[in-house]
Each structure stands twice: as C-alpha cells, then as structure tokens.
Amino acid sequence: MHNTIEKATGKLGILTPGLGAVATTLIAGVEAVKKNLAQPVGSLTQMGNIRLGKKSENRNPKIKDFVPLADLHDIVFGGWDVYQDNVFEAAMNAKVLEPMLLHAVRAELEAIKPMKAVFDQSYIANLHGDNIKQAATKADLAKAVMDDIENFKEANDCSRVVIVWCGSTEIYLEPSAVHQTLESFEAGLRNNDPAIAPSMIYAYAALKLGVPFMNGAPNLTCDIPALMQLAKQTDTPIGGKDFKTGQTLMKTILAPGLQARALGVKGWFSSNILGNRDGYVLDHPDNFKTKEVSKLSVLEDILQPESNPELYGEIYHKVRINYYPPAGDNKESWDNIDIFGWLGYSMQIKINFLCRDSILAAPLVLDLALFSDLAKRSGMSGVQEWLSFYFKSPQTETGLHPEHDIFKQLIVLQNTLRQLMGEEIITHMGQDFDQDLVEASL
Ligand SMILES: NC(=O)c1ccc[n+]([C@@H]2O[C@H](COP(=O)([O-])OP(=O)(O)OC[C@H]3O[C@@H](n4cnc5c(N)ncnc54)[C@H](O)[C@@H]3O)[C@@H](O)[C@H]2O)c1
C-alpha cells in the first residue's frame, strides 16, 4: 500500500479559520521549533515513536521518520479572522506564550495577516470584529473562500493545502433538511438558508477544492450528510469534532481504567474556570450548549451503562464551564468522581488540573494538519476515524459509534500508519513480542 503514497514534496499550506489563542500558539510554536528555540512537546508526529514488528526486533522509530509527513520547514501558515490583528498582535493579546519567545519570531508572525472572515453574528453573539466578507449570498461567500485558498496557494508556492478550524464555538445546531444532501445544501447556499453556519461555508469551500478539513470546535460543520457526500465525491479527508484537551483528555485516560477494572461509577462532576476569548464565547448559553453536548458524550460511550447497568446505570454526569477573566488561558478544572468497589463500598477521586488550554491544543492542530495531508496523499477520503485520538467528539461514518477510549484510539491510529506503510498490524497479543522466543525454546 505504501507505494501509492504521494511524496510530501513542495510546501504545505496550513490555513486556519480563526487566528486566536490556539492557532497563534501553533504558529509561533512551529516557528520557534524551526529556529531550535523549543521542542514540539505533545505532538505525536514530531516526538512520538511507533513500535514495528515483533518486540524482539527492537524497531521503534519516530513516527516522522516512519511515514512521509511534511517537514516543518516546508509549512506556510495563513488564516481568516473577524479581527484584523496580525498573528504577532493576536498572540500577544492571547497571552499564552511569553513575549520574549514571540519577539524571537516576530517577523514571521507579523507577516501573517488574517483574510476577511465569513461571519454571522447570530452564530456567535459575543464577538464584534470588522474584518468580515460582504456578499449577497452564502454561495458567493463560499466562492470567495475558494478564491482565498487558491490565491494563498499560488502566492506561497504551495503544492498542497489543509484547513483546520480553530475558530470559535458556534451556537448549538441540530442537522436539518438543508444538511441532508449536497443538492439541498447547495440550494441553501444560494437561498441564504439560516441553518448553514459560517463554519460549514469554509468546509464546503475546502471540500470543493479537495482540501482536507479538520474541525477543532464542537460545531456541526462537516458532520452532516451533505458535506460527507462532497468529501467522498472530491476524494477529500474530513474529521472532527472538538480538540481533546484538558478535562476531557483526563476523562478519557481515567474512565477506561475504571471500566477495565469493573469498578462502578455513581457520579462525575466536572467544573472549569477559564478566562480567554474562548471562555467568553462559551459564556453565552447557546454556544455553551454546543460544548456541553460534546463533553457529555464521552463517558456514556466509554462506560456503556446500557450493557452494564449494575456499575454505570445510575451515573450522574455534569459539566460546568465558568468564564473567569483572571484565569486567562490557564484553565483550571476540578473533577469529583464518586466510584464504588467490592460489595458496593464507595470511594472518591478528586482531580485538580491546572492546565494551559492552548499549550495542549496547539500540537493537536499540527498533527491533524500533517496527518490529514498524509491521508490525502494516500488516497484516503471521507471521515478519518483513525484520527479520533485527537477529538472530544469523534466524527464517524453515519450510524457508527465513536470510540472515546484514548488507548484504543492510539492503537487504531498506529495500526493505520503501519498498514499504510506495509508493516504488520500489532494486536498486543503475546505473539507480537515473544512468539519467536517461544518457538526458539521449543
Ligand atoms: N484551547 C483548547 O484547549 C481547545 C480545546 C478544544 C476545542 N477548542 C476550540 O478551538 C477553538 C479555538 O479556541 P481558542 O482558544 O483559540 O479561541 P479564541 O477565541 O482565542 O480564537 C478563536 C478565533 O476565531 C475567530 N473566529 C470566530 N468565528 C470566526 C469565523 N467565522 N471566521 C474566522 N474567524 C472566526 C475569533 O475572532 C477568534 O479570534 C474554539 O472553538 C475552542 O472551543 C479549544
């Protein structure tokens, strides 16, 4: 299969709708790594290893040395935002990275100015920017985004482009008739159907051009039949939703462990404070609802109360996000978990995670960009479930259940890479590592 992967030659453009805390932390970080000022910690593509063959073979290369990914020096960044700040100014405002580091890459960051955004106030009440496209119809807006992508590609001499949504969380939206087929969606673009969100317009434009689109917010965006159909039609990888960072990352590390040991869970109360712009947008109840649905889905899918009602049938799961400006991007989360063990005796676990939201998210954006480019070059199209590892609420093909357990997600990701490169799949059964020794001793 690996013979069919196109080489990663030429430049890769990474475009992000949204140049806020996450996107600017990614861009400044990659520029700093390119100058050897820091390490890309948290990025599996850059720092992770992958075991190949039997354990006794001792083959454990870095992922970036195993699969043909774009080199960081071949990446060019760009994006759209409703605010006019260039990436240096936006990164300074976001206050995630130290000014000293930002000044070391200032020229590179100042050169990136946001393109005019596709924006609709009814989808995000708490933002008031003026860097916004004006057009008569949503179809015209989609065409304008396609022009932006093609102009960017040409101006920067890119051989390929990928898009990762790093824009704000839109209000909660259920799929409706206009989202069901490509035909109805395109009619909706022409008729300015209010159920077509700005993020869907970017996704449509990307998919029309065969540009991979990954969604880092919990928005519906490309998780609708119309855009899944378009992705297949244009051989384009898509994926989402909502970067798995912070509290949900902890949840999907811990919950599979409790379930593996058949320990019961009665309640899981999760509370957060954060003070960045993301927190301000989520302070609006309609936008919070989108995030809440994404965060709540995780436990049910891991613990499966319907197949184990004795252990998980009574679980009370609550998630709260509170906007608290002094916290800035340094989100603090508290989890109170009521569990029970042998004969029903109760115990409690408390987690207090003092995390840095964008520091956890930036490497995920990099990995998603590089892996979606790899998927495109490998002829993989439609929903990339093997990238579920990166998402709170993984998109699946219609009718399938998402996998939330981070360890299973990692196995699927690594086995996909092994398969792509013509290596044996590893099942983690004993035979994988000591069968040779067993046979030798017979
Ligand atoms: N930081 C994390 O750990 C994390 C985790 C999971 C998901 N997310 C999601 O990632 C997204 C980005 O987070 P952030 O912390 O960078 O937020 P942010 O508010 O700092 O940045 C988002 C940017 O998107 C812009 N924007 C909004 N709508 C837009 C549109 N239609 N077109 C172009 N730009 C638009 C905003 O002006 C803002 O600058 C949010 O949706 C957030 O919920 C973040």
TrEMBL record:
This is Inositol-3-phosphate synthase. It holds the Pfam family NAD_binding_5. Residues 246-358 form the Myo-inositol-1-phosphate synthase GAPDH-like domain. One of its GO terms (biological process) is phospholipid biosynthetic process. Keywords: Isomerase. One of its GO terms (molecular function) is inositol-3-phosphate synthase activity. Belongs to the myo-inositol 1-phosphate synthase family. It comes from Adhaeribacter pallidiroseus. Its EC number is 5.5.1.4.
